[in-house]
Amino acid sequence: KHPDYVSSCEKEPQWWGNYKIFGEKDRDVASVLYYIKCFDKAAQTFIRGDHGSLITGDGSTTAVWRQPPYTNHEGNRLPCETPLLINELQPKAKYIFLLREPIDQLYSAYWNFCLKRKDPNEFDKMVLFDFQSWKKCLEINSATYCLYKAYAKNDDNVCGIDGLMHNLYYMFVSIWMQVIPRDQILFLKSEDLKEDPADVLRRVYKFLELSPVSHEKLLQIVSRRHINEQSFLHNADNGDKFKMLPSTRDLLTKFYKPFNQKLAQL
User: Fold this and answer.
1) Is the pLDDT of residue 71 over 80?
2) Looking at residue 55, what DSSP letter applies?
3) pTM value?
């Protein structure tokens, strides 16, 4: 990591998207003080002031898309409160959205987190279930309602993961952009990070206004061991055992296309 970055208690505290919302049974965890405590180490380093300009951060992905159950959309009120709250607490914070091609991300999440029997046919069932649920919801509700309703309860999903709507990036990001100034947001593609990590890191450091690092240090950072590469999905020796069904990919391509086109215009 960059020498000017001070880690919090963990890379992804998941407080905004998990504990704040679903911590009713543990008031200590649901309290904002629990979240603030996660940055004690960083705060102590800042107070010492022995290393110039330092920053810290929160890499929690659930903060972007997981919200309390959506009920209505009154007046100018946003359908989610997280960007409003974070912007109120940290108006100068910067936001990095690292986005992966939605179909690949969904399939990866399926193999990572699905608790039931996993194979391409079962994945197809999950996609069809979510797709039909989405269509049925849209018959009488807005897309925003259907999007957040999906996270109020997802137990009916064939697999139990967050499913199809999780990757409607445009809908989530556009809500955040109603609150967060555009110059405080950086969009990145995970495919670019995989292809040229050094270039992506340079862009990140510039965006965060961090001090430049030497070429040697940059190479040291990008050469660190990667985790969760799911090489079995791309291993030719496995044949078609893990390959997504063509009909599933075709359905997902058509489903995500209009949302991806809108995202590209942001």
Assistant:
1) no
2) B
3) 0.83
